[in-house]
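Figure 2 data, in text form.
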Amino acid sequence: MKVITISQLNSYIKDKLESDFVLSNIWLKGEISNFKHHSSGHMYFTLKDKTSQLKCVMFRSRAQNLQFMPTNGMAVISRGYVTVFERDGQYQLYVEEMQPDGVGALYTAFLQLKERLEAEGLFAPEIKKPLPRFPHRVGVVTSPTGAAVRDIITVIQRRYPQTHIIIIPVKVQGDEAPAEIEAAIRTANDFKNLDVLIVGRGGGSIEELWAFNTEKVARSIFESRIPIVSAVGHETDFTIADFVADRRAPTPSAAAELVVPDAGELQKLIDSLSQRTVTAVKSRITTQKEKLARLTESNVLRRPKDEMYKRMMELDYLTRTMRQNIKVQINNMKSNLTLNTSRLDNLSPLATLNRGYAITLDSGGNVIKSASNLKPGDDIELILLDGTVECSVKRVKEVNND
């Protein structure tokens, strides 16, 4: 009987699994769960179907080539080989390649990046920069040999030939393209004399347009001080660059039409405005001439002193009327004063004394109104019209008025 260790058994099983032709390169379809993206760059997860599950690992060297980020619940197709992790005695799939099940990996990566950048606000309409109406210098970031650059130059020179075109050549596809496009956009901003920037290329497959779906290019567009028009592919092609850019053009030729006005149309507009201005000025001059003729024939201008004389006579009339009214008011006031004075005289105690009456005061200076207030021997004072008389009461005789 031969006894072996657990490590020997796990090693034996590992050799068997790795030497199996089918298990050494197998494609598996399943749903991701328990996904963990380790700080080392390795990805650990489980693939499962309705009844079973299998532990998987994708090392950093393979994971960094993914065009999308795996998430829990995502259905994927994975290629790899089955082996045993000897320490735990557990077999698992070492994933070397992965793609979404039913949706292309590139398209999934496009949707994931689009959703993330949109959540960060890179597509917000309120941060879009306006395009200059009459640009002096237009920068173009594209391939120097493609049809796109020729279309852009042709359209700009035809529409607005006074514009200076600065070509910043870059690769527009391949692994080096995103970094070159990013650097070109930053270089264009360092010029500090460009008015607007066109970034794009001609049409192609999603793989060929992929440089414009990368985060590097998206963030360089977002951070650009210069307004950017994205012109990638054909009218039906949409890239991340289109969403981040200040304006999206369906084609490179359309981008050129967006950034510069049509000089011919501007000349027609200027001619039309000039003609309308001349017509308006002539009409205004005619109107003012007619108004001047009417004023010249008016009495005010032919005999201007007539109006002045009229106003002077009106002033004389108003002055006389005012003086007459003042005299009447003064006379009325004098009459009222005389009447009121007469009434006051009638009510005055002096008028009563003048008729022969006297005012009797006791020794304290109080007016005596009744004989019952006196008794024999009281000293009294009589006030007459022309003086006073001091008296002494000899006898009091009261009169009964009942």
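Caption note: The first strand starts at residue 26 and ends at 37.
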